[in-house]
Amino acid sequence: MLPENATDLACRGEALLDISVIIPTHNRANLSGQAVRSAVALDYRSERYEIIVVDNASTDATRRVVESLQSNSNSCRLRYVREGQLGLHHARHAGARAAKGEILIFTDDDATFDSGWLQAYASAFGEHPEMVAAGGPIRPVWETPPPEWILEFIGNAKDFGILSLMEPYKEFQLGSNVHFFGVNMAIRRDVLFDVGGFNPDAFGDTWLGDGETGLVRKLCNLEMLIGYVPEALVYHHIPPQRMTVEYFCWWKANEGACDTYARFHHGIPHRRNLCLQAASIGIKNSKCWLGALLLRGRTDGRALDVQLRAARTQAQLRYILRLIFNRDLRKLVLKENWLGKRPRVKEHSSEKVKPRLQRVDV
Fold first, then answer.
1. I need a surface site. Which of 81, 212, 313, 338 has the fewest CB within 10 A?
2. Last residue of some domain: 171, 205, 240?
C-alpha cells in the first residue's frame, strides 16, 4: 500500500529528467485512469521521463486506481502526489514542485495522447533552445454523437475555447503571439518558477482567475517565445454533459470572470469607481440579458450568441460586485506569485551540468 503522504510510487531518485508529464485530477478516477494508461503507452525514446498524477482533494478511488496502474505498468515512471487544497492551479503547482523534469508538460484527466506526443515536444525544445513554452493541436473525441447545432456553431473555427479544441496551423510556429490550452501545454521548468506559475482559475465550480491564459500573458509581456508543435497531438474527450447550451453558458460565465480578473490583476480602483463600472455593465447589457431570458435553451446561432454574451457579461458584473464587498477576494486578485521559489533538484551523479534534451527526429 502507498504511504499516507507518498509522492512516489516506486522511484526515489532525485536526478533531473528530460520531461515530467503532470495530470491533475479531482474525483474522476475512471477518466484519470484512461489518461494515465494512454500516457504510459507513449512512444518516447528515452527512459528519462515521468508521469505525475496530482490527486486534487479527491474523495473517490483515484489513489487506488493510480496504485493499480503503477503495479500493472511495472514502471517507476508513474508517481502520485496528493494536493489537499482544492483548485486546479494548486494541483498544477504541486506537480511542478514534485517534478524532476526540465520540461513540464501539463494535460487534463479527460485527455488521451498521440503516441508521438512526448517525442514531438522533446524534439521541438531540443531544436529551439530559445522556445520557453509550447502547445499543440487538440482534437475532439465525442463520447456520443454531437448535436448538429454544436457542429454548426464550431463551423470552420481553428480555435474553439469552449471545448478546448484547437488546430490553427499545419506547420511549426514560434513567436510571442502563440497561445495554448491547459490540456496540451509544455513549459521549461525554470521559466514556470521564474514567472510565478499559473494564475488561479477554478476552485471546484467557483472561478477566480485566468489560469493558463494568464500564464500566456505573462510570457508574452516578457517577450518570451512560445511554440506551436503540430505533431504534439492530444485528444480531448467530450462527454454529453458538455454538449448543452447550459454548459456553453457556464463556460462563458467563467470567461467573464477571467476577463475581470485580468483587468484588475495589477490594480483595483476605489469602490466608487467599481460601482460605476458595475452600473455601466448593467446599462449596456440589460437588453441582452432580457433577450437571453426569452431565448433560453434555443440553439440557433443568433440565440446562442445572445445567451453566451449574457452569461459572460453577467459574470463580469457579479465579479465586480464581489470585489466591492469581499476584501479577501481583492487580496487574491492582486497576488502575483502563486508558485513560490524553485525547489532544488539534484543532478545526475555522473554529470556536472544539467542534462540536455535529446535531439531526435520524429
1. 338
2. 240
What are residue 234's phi and psi, to 5 degrees? -120, 145
> 207: which 3 cell numbers?
472561478
pLDDT in tens, 149-168: 999 999 999 999 999 999 99
Domain hosting residue 329, numbered range: 245-334
Query: What is the pLDDT confidence band of residue 355, given thresholds at 50, 70 and 90?
Result: very low
Split into its structural domains, the chain has a count of: 2
What three-state secondary structure class fits 246? helix
pLDDT digits (tens, 9 = 90+) for 307-318: 999 999 999 999
Q: Is residue 129 located within the same domain as residue 267? A: no
Residue 15 CB-density burial (10 A; 0-12 exposed, 13-18 middle, 19+ buried): middle
Cα 12 versus chain centre, distance: 27
What sign results for the dihedral spanned by CA atoms 174, 342, 15, 181?
A: negative
Can you tell me whether residue 24 is helix, strand or coil? Answer: strand
The Cα 292–Cα 307 span in angstroms is: 5
Q: What DSSP letter does each residue of 73-98 carry, written as one string?
A: HT-S-EEEEEE-S-SHHHHHHHHHHH
